[in-house]
Structure to design on (130 residues):
């Protein structure tokens, strides 16, 4: 299952945005208002929970400065990655798009597609808060 957020403009350079996204503490700022839990559990990992969904542990998997940050599920039960693709527009602005890729059975995919789509759209639209 592949989902994409809309591309959003951010008034930060690609490097600034990359630096902010590689610090997992900053994901707390991006989370939706209906978040039930957000907890940093290490330098490169955090747990979050949305109301009505199981808690998910995300871990930093790959960093390619200043264009790509890859987070992945720390558990094999829900194998997925969340990729932030950053494009430089100018010295003081950039664009970012989030790509979600998960390997789920059709029933699970059907159940989570809506909430996950909304979640990555919220993360992207909150980028300006960083």
């Amino acid at each position: 299952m592949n989902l994409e957020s809309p591309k959003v403009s951010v008034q930060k350079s690609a490097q600034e945005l990359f630096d902010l996204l590689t610090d997992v503490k900053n994901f707390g700022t991006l989370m939706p208002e209906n978040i039930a839990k957000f907890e940093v559990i290490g330098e490169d990992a955090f747990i979050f929970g949305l109301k009505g969904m199981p808690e998910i542990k995300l871990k930093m998997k790959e960093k390619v400065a200043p264009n790509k940050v890859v987070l992945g599920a720390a558990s094999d039960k829900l194998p997925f990655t969340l990729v932030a693709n950053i494009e430089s527009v100018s010295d003081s602005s950039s664009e970012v798009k989030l790509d979600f890729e998960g390997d789920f059975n059709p029933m699970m995919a059907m159940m989570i597609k809506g909430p996950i789509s909304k979640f990555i759209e919220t993360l992207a639209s909150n980028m300006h808060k960083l």
About this structure: The beta strands are 2-4, 8-10, 35-42, 45-50, 56-64, 68-73, 80-90, 93-102. The first strand starts at residue 2 and ends at 4. Residues 12 and 46 are 24 Å apart (CA to CA). The domain at 2-129 is CATH 3.30.530.20 (Alpha-D-Glucose-1,6-Bisphosphate; Chain A, domain 4).
